[in-house]
Amino acid sequence: MPLWTLHHSPGTLAEDDQRELAGAIADLYPILPRFYVGVVFNEAAEGSLYIGGERADRFVRISVEHIARTLPGAEARTRWMNRVHRTFVPFMADRDLGWELHIDETPMDLWSIQGLRPPPPDSAAEQRWIRENRPSPYETEPALGAG
User: Fold this and answer.
1) How far is CA 64 from CA 18, 60, 84, 92, 146, in A?
2) Under a CB-based contact definition with an 8 Å cutoff, are residues 9 and 51 in contact?
3) Would you state the pLDDT for residue 69?
4) Which domain holds residue 118?
5) Which candidate in 39, 86, 95, 113 could, as Cys together with 135 as Cys, close a disulfide (CB 3.0–4.6 Å)?
6) Total domains, the chain
7) Rounded to two decimals, what is the model's pTM?
């Protein structure tokens, strides 16, 4: 599951922008069930966002947690960051917003959805989750707390 959290200055991302950006972020993950992709927008209170000790009135700080997949090396990370930056340019750079982004990767075995361990990548169960766009039990892994 990727979880994207965007902390932003007041008025920098309108509701329509948020909806469009959340869709663009979900589109970055075509191999995952769409419901894996979470996006949270946190508008900072007026005058409460500072960068380098200076008030930042047109700034977005993006924090990403990758759990469903990890990037397998420097080349893959570079390709991914380039793809992410291309996605964000219309929302940030083209609007003259300052922005910063980082990604943390969490082991998949420390993650569950509705008490279920997500199925292994590219498995038949994961393909079913993609088709149905929801989690459901599958035979090879019991729900957490079972047994």
Assistant:
1) 16, 13, 11, 16, 31
2) no
3) 86
4) 114-147
5) 113
6) 2
7) 0.85
